[in-house]
Write a structure and sequence with these properties.
Structural class: mainly alpha
Shape: globular
Radius of gyration: 17 Å
């Protein structure tokens, strides 16, 4: 038998998935705009991958998750296709966790998602991604890279929370 609290948590999960998916799209738009702005400022196209990585962390993650299962290396094209899937799946899953947490402990939604975005930036970009070998260590990047990533994750958090609240309002 499900209680009202259980139903609220599940509604929070659904609303969080929606918020996380929209926020994953929005962070991609923000990061693209930042890259274009830096390219114009610096006067060259070398900023397209500002961090200097040979491939995005999402493509590395896709390969790490998929290759042991399919027992072969992913092609460059397959990685390009799988990278966004990892990005949106992660964004949606983190949004689901945020939605459930916001229902169980409303204080988690304090700051309209800005605290959530900050925590996600630190936990994912600064700790987990380098620890998993999906990027270089944080100290190998200039401060501007960290600030740009933090700004993008603040937009993610605010967007995820706004959409979550809207979806939850109609549920």
């Amino acid at each position: 038998m499900h209680t009202a609290d259980d139903r609220a948590i599940w509604r929070g999960v659904v609303a969080g998935v929606a918020g996380g998916a929209v926020a994953a799209w929005k962070i991609t738009q923000v990061q693209g705009a930042m890259t274009r702005m830096l390219e114009r400022r610096d006067g060259h196209g070398q900023q397209s991958r500002q961090d200097g990585e040979p491939e995005p962390a999402t493509e590395k993650a896709a390969a790490a998750l998929t290759e042991p299962v399919i027992e072969r290396k992913l092609t460059h094209g397959e990685k390009k296709q799988a990278g966004p899937i990892v990005h949106y799946a992660f964004g949606s899953a983190i949004g689901a966790a945020y939605g459930a947490t916001a229902e169980a402990a409303p204080v988690a939604a304090a700051g309209r998602g800005l605290l959530f975005g900050s925590a996600l930036w630190f936990g994912a970009d600064e700790v987990a991604v380098p620890a998993l070998g999906l990027s270089k260590p944080p100290l190998d990047y200039p401060p501007s890279t960290h600030l740009n990533a933090l700004a993008a994750h603040l937009v993610y958090g605010l967007t995820a929370d706004t959409v979550r609240r809207l979806v939850r309002w109609v549920m």
